[in-house]
Design brief:
Blueprint lengths: L1 H24 L6 E5 L3 H8 L7 H10 L2 H4 L5 E2 L6 H4 L26 E3 L3 E9 L5 E7 L21 E4 L3 E2 L2 E8 L5 E11 L7 E10 L1
Keywords: Signal
Protein name: Chitin-binding type-4 domain-containing protein
Organism: Amycolatopsis minnesotensis
Length: 214
């Protein structure tokens, strides 16, 4: 009888552990991140959360562990309601002020960067796992941006160079057809805000994409 009861306990513990692992690996409340130019978190996820290749992603894991990278599409604030600048502190823009993603805020000049043209038309691709009604805004850092310092709101241009409600979806990507603002060269950062609409939700999603303007 004791042997049978022990077997049941082992089976139950095994099921619980497997279920917890499954829920950890597949985020339940997650919806997207910039895929082109790739966001920091999506880049690190693609490299492999347990053994990332780039120095910056290794540093992010050392600071914040590997498990947040599995939730690459969940850098969000549930009740942002259009007040992102008021509720996300300077120095924590890439993590949306969430300690879970603090590794994304590391100020360094070696984050993997996407090479982009310095002006003209460009189609951004926002990788999604769930579509929602909402508005996308894209900001670029000002001239003189220093990636070795914590990112502040004042480092971004005051107005977005792209703003669009419900852009088209092709495959698993929102297609954000933007005109690059010009006047930027070298390393910069593009910050995206995806603000969902009421009455659906006040939730917003955020991403940091490191770029090299040529």
């Amino acid at each position: 009888m004791r042997i049978a009861r022990s077997a049941v306990k082992v089976a139950a513990m095994t099921f619980t552990l497997c279920a917890a692992t499954a829920f950890t690996a597949v985020p339940a409340f997650a919806h997207g991140s910039m895929g082109k130019p790739v966001s920091r978190i999506y880049q690190c996820f693609q490299e492999g959360p347990e053994e990332p290749q780039s120095a910056a992603c290794k540093a992010a894991v050392a600071v914040g562990d590997s498990w947040p990278l599995y939730d690459w599409d969940e850098v969000n604030i549930g009740d942002a309601d259009g007040h992102s600048r008021d509720i996300i502190p300077d120095g924590k823009l890439c993590s949306a002020g969430r300690d879970k993603y603090k590794g994304l805020d590391l100020p360094r000049a070696d984050w993997p960067a996407t090479t982009m043209p310095s002006s003209g038309a460009y189609t951004f691709q926002y990788q999604l796992t769930a579509a929602h009604e909402g508005t996308f805004e894209l900001y670029v850092t000002k001239s003189g941006y220093d990636p070795t310092k914590p990112l502040k709101w004042s480092d971004l241009e005051d107005t977005p160079f792209y703003k669009q409600d419900n852009p088209p979806i092709v495959g698993r990507n929102y297609q954000l057809k933007a005109t690059l603002p010009g006047g930027h060269t070298g390393r910069h950062l593009i910050y995206s805000i995806w603000q969902r609409h009421w009455p659906d939700s006040a939730e917003a999603f955020y991403s940091c994409s490191d770029v090299l303007f040529r």
